[in-house]
Give the backbone structure.
Amino acid sequence: MTTAASDIQRENRTLGLKLALIVPVMLVFCASLVPLYRVICEQLGITQSKLVVGSSNTQVDLSRTLTVELLASKNQNMGWHFEPLQRSVRIHPGELATVMYRVTNPFDRPMVGKAVYSVLPPAAGRKVEKLQCFCFSDQTLGPGETRDMPIVFRILADVDESVDTVSFAYTFFDVTAQRELKGS
Amino acid sequence: MSATTHPADHAADHHDHKPYGLSRWLFTTNHKDIGTMYLLFGLLMAIVGGFLSLGIRAELFMPGLQILQPETFNSFMTLHGLIMVFGAVMPVFVGFANWLIPMQIGAADMAFPRMNNWSFWLLPPAAILLAGSFFVEGGAIQSGWTLYPPLFTQSGISGDMTILAVHILGASSIMGSINIVTTVLNLRAPGMTLMKLPLFVWTWLITAYLLIAVMPVLAGAVTMLLTDRHFGTSFFNAAGGGDPTMFMHIFWFFGHPEVYIIILPAFGIVSQIIPAFSRKPLFGYASMVYATSSIAILSFIVWGHHMFTVGMPAAGQLFFMYATMLIAVPTGVKVFNWIATMWRGSLTFETPMLWALGFLFMFTMGGFTGLVLAITPVDITLHNSYYVVAHFHYTMVAGASFAIFGGVYFWWPKWTGKMYNESFGKLHFWWTTIGFNLTFFPQHFLGLAGMPRRIPDYALQFAEWNMISSIGAFFLAAGQIFFMITLWLSYKSGAPAKDRQWEGADSLEWTHLPSPVPYHTFETVPVLK
C-alpha cells in the first residue's frame, strides 16, 4: 500500500510538471505575438508605418542631387498646347520643389482636360510625394485660355542610391465629351 | 448500497476527526474544506460585484448624473466586470470542482492537496488589491475589465494593483488547473474509465486545460502593460512605435477561451442535473464530450469577433465570422442532447431542475444574440452597445450563474446533510428569473436603439427602458438576499437529507457516500464494475 501510494505521488508529480511546462510555452507564445503582429501587419499592408512620413523622410539629404526631367505629351485626340516651363530641375532628396507647366486651349469652345502621369524609374515612383498637382483634378479651360499650373513635390530622402535621374511624364486627355455626358 | 458500510470501515481510525478553529481553514488540505472556502469566497465577491452593479443601475435609473460622478461610474463598471469574472464565477466553479471531482471519480482527495490550499489562499490578497484600489489616489481603474491601453496605461497606482491582482489570480488558476487535470488523469478509481466520467468532471478537465493555456497569455499581456507604464517600453504606445490594437489581439486571445472557461463547468453541472430529474441517462454522452472539446478548440480561433471595428482585412473579418458561427454547431449538439435527455423522461421539477431548465432556455437566447453579433456588418453597428451587454449577461448570468444556483441546490443536501425548503427554492428561482429578464431583456432594445455601453448618462429617449432595467436589477438583488436566507435556514434547521436525495442521480457521491459526506471519503479506493 505504501509503495503504491508513493508510486501515485511520483506519477502525480511527473504529470504536474508536464502540465506546468505549458505555462512557459504559452508565455513565450505571448511574447512572440509582438514581433508576429508586426510582421503580419506589414505583410498585409495595414501597418501605420507605411502611411506615416517618419522624421527621417523630412530630412534633406544635401549629399545627393537628383535631376528631375519634365516631360509633356498629349493624347492623339487632344489639341491643347502643353509644355513644361523648364526642361529639368536639380534638387536634393527630401527638398521641396515647385515646377510649372503651361497649357493653352486654342479652340473657340471651353474644354475639359485630364492629366495622367507616370514616374520613372519605378523605384523612384514610390518615393515621390506630391503636395499639389494639376493632375489631381480636371482642368477646364475657356476658349483661348492659357494657364500656368504648378506641381509642388519632393522626392523622399530614402530614395534608392541607384537613382540619379527621375522623369515626370504628363499626358493630357480630352475628357470634355465624358464630362458633358455625366453633367447631363 | 455501500454508503452504509463505508463509515463502518473507518470507525476505528477516528474517521471524522478534523482540526478546529482558524488553523483548520488556514492550513487545510482537505478538498471539501477548500471547496467550501472557494464557494464562500465567490459568494462574498458576488456580493461586492453585485453592489457595484447596483451602483451602475442606480446611476442609470434616470438620465443625468445623480449618484456617481463619471470617473466613479467607470470604476464601478470596470471592477464589477473584473470581480464578477475573476472573483465570483471562476472561484465558485473551482469550489464545485474541489468538492465534487474527487468524490465523482472515487479519489480520496486532490492530487496536490498542499498546492490546493495555496491556490485558494492566493485569492484573498488579490481580492484585497482589487477592492482596495477604490481607496487609493485616483480611484480604481476605469478602462473596463478588458484593461485596454491607452486608458489603462494612464491609471494611477490602482493600475499596478490591478496588474498584480491579475498575476496572482492567474497563478492561482493555473495551480488549481494543474491540480484538477492531474487528479482526473491519475486518481480515478479502478473501472472509472475516461468515457465513464460524469460530465461535470469532463467539462472541468477541458476547462482546466484551457486555463493552463490562456492564463499565461493574460499574464504576458498585463506584464507588457506594466513595462509600458514604468519601464519605458512601447508595446502599446503609438508614440513609441507600438500599437494599442495589439493589446486587443493578445487580450482576446485570452479572453475568448476565458468566456468558455466560465461556461463549460456550467454545461457540466446542467448535464448532471437534467438526467437526474429526467430519470434517464444523459442522451449522447460521447457527443457531449466531443462537443465540449470542439468548443474548447474553436475558442482559440475566434478572438477577432470582439474587435471587428478596429480595422482588419475583409478576409480576416470573414474568417472570424464563420469560425464564430461554427461554434453554434457543437453548442447546438449540447442543447439538443439536453432536450433529448428530457424526451419521454419521468420529469419532476424540483428546484435544481428549474434552474437547469432556466439555464437551457435563457442561455440559448444568449447564444442566439451571440450569433447575431457574430455577423460582421451587424456587429459593426451593435459594437459597444447595450445589445452586447444584454448578450453576455444572458450567457454569464442566465448561463453560468443559473447553473451555479442549480448546482448549489442540487448538491446542498450532499454537502450539508440538510434539505432546503423546496418552496423557498422555487420562489427564489422564479424571483431571479423575473428579475433577471426585467433587468436585461430591455437592454436588447436599448442597444438596438443605439445606447452605448459604459456611459453614466444617456439621451432622453432611452429613459423608460433604463428605468425598467434598474427596477429589475434591485428586484433581482433582493431575491439573492432571499437565497442566502433560504440556505441559512436550511443549514440551521433543515430536514435531514437522504443519502441519495435525488433518486435519478447516479454519480458516485450519491450512490456510494452518505449525506452529509464525511470529512474523509474514499480512503479505500472503490472498485467499479
Confidence is low (pLDDT under 50) at residues 1-14 of chain B. The CA atoms of residues 36 and 414 of chain B lie 13 Å apart. The interface with chain A takes residues 111-112, 174, 177-179, 181-182, 185-187, 212-217, 219-221, 224, 235, 238, 241, 243, 246, 249-250, 253, 311-313 of chain B (CB under 8 Å). The two ends of chain B are 14 Å apart (CA to CA).
